[in-house]
């Protein structure tokens, strides 16, 4: 069974006002005093962010338990210096992001200017194990049309600088400002993939391979395909669903490759339109169907994804739970819907943030 790991980026906020707090260095100093968490938490681009990574897991229950534990530990460490964490993909409240120290981040700020300073966005990255780079690239070539469905399921960033953006995932629109971000054409071999990455680094527009921000890429540190389209999710169960579906996509694509089926896909132009539609609509309206690229109700498109990976989900024991969780999200809405409902009920973005911080740690 393929293993799965999750990376989540959390927003550091004041527990009373909900305002973002540039305290990641202080939080990580606390983490450094705890031997158990030193390999879990990391700094990120902005001082208002804190990242954690789970260990590779085979079972979704184990993965969920680790995500819950990491969120609670993040909140504990943050609480020791007077802030807390919220699983929000953008800050609902106005913020002036503070870029972290270090040569890499300073290079990015100098190179990309305001695009770097405004990149206070929190994502969820899923790593799924693969047997080789050849298998990994074959998977990347085949899964891209389906990734927009994961983006819609995870959408959790409707607000930006104190205003409703009318998007479900505005994070993904901000993320597209990086020059290497987004969907890719089919590579067809690992050699071509690595040649393309080397050519991109050689331009000097990006600093190194770590700045290859494809929607799905080969990890440079682990034998995995890394899927990077999702917002950080409000409820701890949602990244588990995203991880189960991501593993199903990887396994299904690998089987197609081993069976000799050609990778069928769409142009980057169409993939970008599908990504925009998912960011705009989330689960509330229509999405572009990954096979036909025709507009269809979100429920129809989510069911198509479940059908596509059904055999893989059954074999890992995730079929029933994935169907139940997708049905619940379609009924209640993703994190974006929860945030908007909270604002409608309370009339206060501060209350939205503080309630989301509570949900994050539940």
UniProtKB/TrEMBL annotation:
Protein name in UniProt: Putative glutamate--cysteine ligase 2
SUPFAM superfamilies listed in its UniProt record: Glutamine synthetase/guanido kinase (SSF55931)
A molecular function (GO) term: glutamate-cysteine ligase activity
Family of the protein in this entry: Belongs to the glutamate--cysteine ligase type 2 family. YbdK subfamily.
GO BP terms: modified amino acid biosynthetic process
Class in the EC hierarchy, top level: ligase
Job of this protein: ATP-dependent carboxylate-amine ligase which exhibits weak glutamate--cysteine ligase activity.
Keywords: ATP-binding, Ligase, Nucleotide-binding
UniProt-listed InterPro entries: GCL_type2/YbdK_subfam (IPR050141), GCS2 (IPR006336), Gln_synth/guanido_kin_cat_dom (IPR014746), YbdK (IPR011793)
Gene3D superfamilies tied to this protein: 3.30.590.20
Reaction it catalyzes: L-cysteine + L-glutamate + ATP = gamma-L-glutamyl-L-cysteine + ADP + phosphate + H(+)
EC number: 6.3.2.2
Pfam families from the UniProt entry: GCS2 (PF04107)
PANTHER family reported in the protein's UniProt record: GLUTAMATE--CYSTEINE LIGASE 2-RELATED
Source organism, top-level taxon: Bacteria
